[in-house]
Amino acid sequence: MKTNFTHTMLTWIGAAIISTACAWGVTHYYSLQPTTDTPDNTQPDYVRPAVNTPRMADTDFTTAAQLSVNAVVHVKTTYTAKKQSSVIDPFLEFFFGLPHYQERPQPQQQGFGSGVIISNDGYIVTNNHVIDRADMIQVVLNDKRTYTAQLVGTDPTTDIALLKIEADSLPTITFGDSDMLKVGEWVLAVGNPFNLTSTVTAGIVSAKARNINILNAAMKIESFIQTDAAVNPGNSGGALVNTQGRLVGINTAIASETGSYAGYAFAVPTSIVQKVVEDLKQHGTVQRAILGVQIADITDRLAKDRNIHTLAGAYVNSVMELSAAHMAGITEGDIITHVNNSPIKTVAELQEQIGRHRPGDEITITLLRNNTSITLPVTLQNRQGTTEILTKDNPTQH
Questions:
Q1: Does the annotation count 31 as an active-site position?
Q2: Would residue 236 show up in a list of annotated catalytic residues for this protein?
Q3: Residues 347 and 296: beta-carbon distance below 8 Å
Q4: Active-site pick, 159, 228, 279, 334
Q5: Does residue 273 have a pLDDT over 60?
Q6: Using CA atoms, how far apart are residues 300 and 222, in angstroms rounded to an integer?
Q7: Which one of 178, 236, 271, 323 is the catalytic residue?
Q8: pLDDT tens track for 379-390
């Protein structure tokens, strides 16, 4: 019995030593594996933690809200709608048998929206539709100071307008880079929905370069940032900011059958806003660069009909004679795939890229012709087919 007990004890001790050694070996093995900062490419993806794991700081919006809320203003407009109404004049009715028509001014109406202070000396960007037809524009700051604003200029093709108030040392929002936004990234919408001032909502970028066919202007540019941040009437002209509190868009529209928020909101990206603002400040009118093509998105059916080997790009339906595209050698049936180094997947992306430039700018267009890639230099033109800069007083001078 003693021998058996001794043998059993030795067996238990040996097993414990082996287990401890195995545990140490496993622990030591994993302690030597590379961290997520230097992933081991020899390991399969399913055992390697994701490098870009969300951090708690990414969902803390307090700093972004503090940096932006004071620079978002309440825009109030007053306008008079004139409507033709018939007034029976006995004299005219007796002699001519016709009623006398005259315009009767209607009671003054009020409108409201939001705006973003972009310079400490009082320049404010908002939507064109917020101030359209306004007889008077008032701006109310977050600290309740009220100013009468002057309209510097508008651009219906992007739904952007620029205002100016006589003030200094104002809080501002720093422009961010809307090109760096990624689908799934957190953003904040700051504005005055339903006249509820200084309202902040959060959501994610759900799409980019979205065309919703909402603008009525000729040669419109629709390449919206789509988000699910709650936006309602009154948010128009307000700020879309990233988690660093930088301006990445101007909230413009919602997708809704009721007129209230239904899950999707749209903002003009700052890549477009900045160029429009600079043009309005310098020239009073937007310097719109024209390529001179009629284009379409590539559908699966179009690709099959025209033997196109890609669904990405803008298909050239026709080219205007003596346009920038014509002079550069772009022809019907070409597929534009890049502007400079920026890839083009849709018509909206092409419009956005061209919209960043001015007449006279030289760019490169990469296209597919008979499924062969070609790169061409292009000098953009204005609406009149020249490279001259237009002015507010003489928008068609050249």
A1: no
A2: yes
A3: yes
A4: 159
A5: yes
A6: 23
A7: 236
A8: 999 988 999 987
Both structure tokens of 325: 């595209």
Domain boundaries, the chain: 52-282, 293-379
Please state which of the four CATH numbers 2.40.50.360, 2.40.10.120, 3.30.70.20, 3.10.50.40 is assigned to the domain occupying 52-282.
2.40.10.120
Question: Residue 382: which of 283, 271, 315 has the closest Cα?
Answer: 283
pTM of model > 0.70? yes
Question: Could you give the residue ranges of the DSSP H alpha helices within the chain?
Answer: 2-31, 62-68, 90-96, 128-131, 270-283, 300-305, 324-328, 347-355
pLDDT band per the 50, 70, 90 thresholds, residue 112: very high
DSSP calls for 209-253: EE------STT----EEEE-S---TT-TT-EEE-TTS-EEEEEEE
3-state secondary structure of 378: strand
pLDDT higher than threshold 80 for residue 15: no
Residue 232 has pLDDT above 50, yes or no: yes
271 included as an active-site residue: no
Select which of 129, 228, 271, 279 is catalytic.
129
